[in-house]
Structures are given as structure tokens and as C-alpha cells.
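Question (not urgent): is this output format expected?
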Amino acid sequence: MITHDKTYSLAEVPNLPNIIPDFELSVVMRHIAYRKRGTFLSVAAIALAVAISLIYVSMQDGLQGMLFDIIVEDLPHVTVSPREGDDYIYLYKSLIDRIWSLPGVVAVSPSLGAQVTFAYKDNVESVNLMGADPADVDKIYHIGDYVLQGDIYSIQNGKKVVLGEKLADRLKVKLGQTIFAGIPGEESRSLVVSGILKLPMGWPEDIAFVSHSTVREFTDEGDVVSSVNVKLDDVYLADGVAANLQEQGYKAESWQTLYPEILETLAIETFQNRLIMLLILIIASFGIGSVMYMLVNEKTSEIGMFMAMGASGKNIRNIFLMESAILGLMGGLLGCILGLAFALYLQSLDIRMEGMGGEEMTLPVVINAGSFLAIVLLAAALSVIAGMYPAWKASRLDPALAING
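Got this back:
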């Protein structure tokens, strides 16, 4: 067997084709071991590209996960509105019974809204007053997680209201103080501030929560609601549930219809992730192609000698393809380690940034084993592709001319 630490003459290897697999690997390992500078540059280029790709993908996966969590945790999956021409949903209790009969429903929250004016001392604000059962609202929006002061469940007892933090600041009102709410031309009603919320991302700042009975005093419409929100155990059932309710004559919309920007963002981010990652890896992989091309030029005489000893063009091609693959795999594995280390470091920093709604959020970084494996394998595959031309060129050399350089 030929090894990288021993040189054979033509007479010593009369049956070279019989030991070709070991021969090919031996030549590859010798090239990698003795061309330290070229090996280092090739591996470093791929490693850096893989590490950058993995860090970028980890951050984008984190962003996508955060957006999806908003859908799953903090948004209704289906919203039912009044029928065309109606201001309210009448006989809503029969609607709720129909909704609960549908598969996958885990929460239903009817609510009644009214536009009123809040006044505290000299401060006046227009407010979207929302009457709802706090238990139902919490199942849909997890609103209890956003309470800064007081208790969202307190609105069930008497004339009490829970405000968003920014609305409370504009009114300059604090927990336990009394505000006056009214509609122009009607008598104002007093409400005690029993809770203050830091509203979830994307919520309007002028919203305030009260009980159903309290908001009905402003609408004077009896037992009606203005919307019914539905939560499902599988967000992708939303279109089917909405279609079912539409067939029954209701105006129902899924989260895909109500929040198309979320789907667009997810689709755009996914495409950008893959494209940028691919471009980075292609650039780095063709660095290996350049190294292989120079290696073919340097090793022309050696290639001619191998061919004279019985190696076929296929064997020569395999040598350079194998070397490209090994360099790509080495760079991919090293880049994977570097990318993982930096991603873990970013996670440990707990970097804070401002979200779309102005609130602070942690920089999302998600380490996905599937993404890591895919990028490493892609790096090796692209390295092989980049090495195809140099390998083809080497396999086409004329042995006699190659031996003479």
C-alpha cells in the first residue's frame, strides 16, 4: 500500500489499480498535510463562512420563533365580527355554542366595545372601552402576564377599570384613583382604576378594560357583543374554522387574513436567510476551487506519474474531488463549533432591544441542530462542486506531457 511517508517507483507498484482506494486517500492526505498554508486558508474561509451563516440563521430563527409565539400566545386565531349591516352580534350565546362544537377550539372570548371619553382632573383622553370577561381574555391574550399593578380580574366587581400604562401616564392617574367616563351629551360615570397594564406589542394605547355590565351602560344595546375571539390548539386550523363560521352566515376571519404582515415577514425572512447563507457559502467554497486549480497546476508532473502507473482519469478526478470534500467538511465542522460558541455567547449576554411596539425585548437567538447540520453538509457539497472543474482538468491531462511539466 502506498502511504504519504514513502515514495514508490513505477516498478514497485505494478498493480496500482488494485490499491486505488487507499492510493487516492493517501494522496489527498499528503496534499492536506504538506500544503499547510493552502489547507489553512481553505479551511479558514469555509469555517468563517459557516460560522457567520450559523450566527445569522440563529438570530433569524429566533425572530421567526418570536413572531410565531405572538401568533400562538398573544393573538386570537379567529375573530368573529357583526354581520354586514349590523353594529353588534346579537344572540351571541348561540354563536359561542357553535364555536365550541368545532374541533380544536380551546378558548372563546366575547367582548363589547364602546368609544368613550376619560377625564381625570384637567386631563381628557378618548378611550376604546372594552367590556369582557377577564378569564376569557386571559385565555386568548395571556393578559395577566402584562399586569404591572393591581389585578385584571378586579373589573368583575363594581365599576372598575384597568388601563394601559401609557394611557394612565397621559391621564396622570394612579392605581386606586377615580376617573370619569362618558359619552358626549350623557351623564359621566365614575370608574376606579383597579389595574395598570404594560400592553402587549401591537396593542392600541387607548384601550381600557371593564366588565360587560359596565360597558353596556354606555352602549344601551342590551345583551350584545361586538366581537368574539377564538383560540385553537393548532393555529393552522384557523382558516378552516373561519370558513365553517362563514358558511353559517357569520363574518369570521382567521389570523392569516387579519395579520398578513406576519406571514409576509416570516416568508421574506426565510427567503433572505437561505439566500444570504447560500451566497456566503458559495463565495467561500469557490476559494477551495481556486486552491484546487492551483494545486492541479503545481502537481502536473505528479499527476502524469500516477497516470503512467495505471491510475485512470477517474482516479485522478476522485483525488481532487475527495480533497475538496474533506477541506469543505473540515471547514464546516470548525465553523459549526465557532458559530455555536458565538451563538451561545449572544444568548448569555441577554441583549435588550426595542420592539415594534416600543417595548423592550431580548435579542432572540435560537440554536437549531437541523440548521447546523444542513449548513455543514451544504458547505461540503458546495466545496465538491467548486472543485469539479480543477478535478476535471486534472483528469484530462496527457500523461506524457504532464510528466515533462
